[in-house]
Amino acid sequence: MLVLLASAGIALLVSLLATPLFIRGFARIGWGQFIRDDGPQSHHVKRGTPTMGGLIFIVATLVGYFGGKLLGQDPPTLPALLVLLLIVGMGAVGFVDDYLKISNQRSLGLGGWAKVAGQLIVSVVFSVLVLTIPAGSTGMPLADPVISGVRDIPWLDLAPLGALGIILFVLWITVINVSAANAVNVTDGLDGLATGSMILSMVGYVFIAFWQFNQSCLSQLPPGDAARCYDVAQPLDIATLAATVMGALIGFLWWNTSPAQIFMGDVGSLALGGALAGFAVMTDTQLLLIVIAGLPIIVTGSVIVQRAYFKATGGKRVFLMTPLHHHFELKGWAEVTIVVRFWIITGLFVAAAVGAFYFEWTVHPR
Questions:
Q1: CA–CA separation, 179 and 305 (whole Å)
Q2: Would you place residue 276 in the very low, low, confident or very high pLDDT band (cuts 50, 70, 90)?
Q3: Where are the transmembrane segments (predicted)?
Q4: For residue 152, what is the DSSP state?
Q5: How far apart are CA 187 and CA 298, in angstroms?
Q6: For 268-281, what is the mean pLDDT?
């Protein structure tokens, strides 16, 4: 518990205190945001605002996690290191995309297929590692090829399919990661929107992973509770990492809230999507991610619906503009109003996910 609090606190302080330095440095070297001409007119005043701020909370997360481990004299664990690998890897893809936007002074960086290819490579590497690296002395891999909801779903066990099952599970994790990353990326369109939403999502994973630690199958539990324990690897360290990401985001939000002095960029949004996917895999709550990431899914869904309806009707629209937050901007809502209301929606989704997680434990057969 000491390591959890120390890691989160260090990450918060690093992010809060270092962000102004990054803002001045990014402004000096010209790493400013490029605004689309077809976007809301109110956004054109944001042109030139320093971007790629995701680098800050990625660094703060790394410093916080390893700093807390050093203070607590507690060695890092493989599950947390693999989630960090996923965060950094997805952030690297976003960094290249952001850098090309800045260099070319346009709203498009990497080509669509190139960007997806980078995400696929990172996802496959992560998937293969969690399926092959043993979790301690048991010799069992960190993740079983079983699709999970609130815990592993026995009838969705892909292991009996052999090599085909392993391939299908790798594809499944890849879909989760790429979908989460791009959903957060689409949500990152207003000052503080994605940052605040992801803070609430991290709170959800802190609770889930910490509860799994308290109800771990490796713990001495009462007879009734022992029958419904959680067989996940290093849940306390996953809770620590989720709290560390949360702390780093809180420090960043101080400067990212309206009017934002820095944007997270794709380096930040893709990294956060990777964090969501990594925590979902490591806590065996893969399908529950649909609820925890409810807001990004709705926002991304608005884009899909708009495009499909536009093509099907020959030019008609469901929304004034997508993603969804831009629709409400054109309806006359203030940016801060949209952000706060979307945070509330995120909070309700996270509360529902945590509630479903706990409810499953209460009704799980003893």
A1: 16
A2: very high
A3: 6-27, 48-66, 78-96, 116-138, 158-180, 192-213, 233-255, 287-310, 338-359
A4: E
A5: 9
A6: 97
185 annotated to a ligand binding site: yes
Is 214 within any annotated ligand binding site?
A: no
**Is the distance from CB of 296 to CB of 187 less than 8 angstroms?**
yes
Q: Helix 163-187 and helix 265-282: axis angle, to 10°?
A: 140
- Whether residue 269 contacts residue 57, with contact meaning beta carbons closer than 8 Å, is answered with no
255-266: average pLDDT: 92
3-state secondary structure of 297: helix
Query: How would you write 171-217 as a 3-class SS string?
Result: HHHHHHHHHHHHHHHHHCCCCCHHHHHHHHHHHHHHHHHHHHHHCEC
Instruction: Say how far apart CA 366 and CA 350 lie, in whole Å.
Output: 27
Please tell me whether residue 153 adopts helix, strand or coil conformation.
strand
pLDDT, residue 45, reads 52
Q: Which residue has the tokens 């391939």?
A: 167
Domain that includes residue 311, residue range = 2-363
Give, for 155, the enclosing helix (H) or strand (E): strand 152-157
* pTM for the structure as a whole: 0.93
H or E stretch covering 322: none
Q: For the chain, how many structural domains are there in total?
A: 1
User: Do 15 and 248 contact (CB within 8 A), yes or no?
Assistant: yes
What contacts 145, CB < 8 A, 6 or more positions away? Answer: 131, 157, 158, 159, 165, 166, 168, 169
**Nearest-5° Cα angle at 300, 299 to 305:** 100
Rounded Cα gap, residues 276 and 286, in angstroms: 10
Sign of CA dihedral 266, 181, 177, 203: positive
Rounded to the nearest angstrom, the gap between the alpha carbon of residue 214 and the centroid of all alpha carbons in its chain is 24
pLDDT tens by residue, 85-102: 999 999 999 999 988 888
What is the band of 27 on the pLDDT scale with cuts at 50, 70, 90? confident
Residues in the chain: 366
**Rg, Å, the chain Cα set:** 20
Buried b (16+ CB within 10 A) or exposed e, 103-118: eeeeeebbeeeebeeb
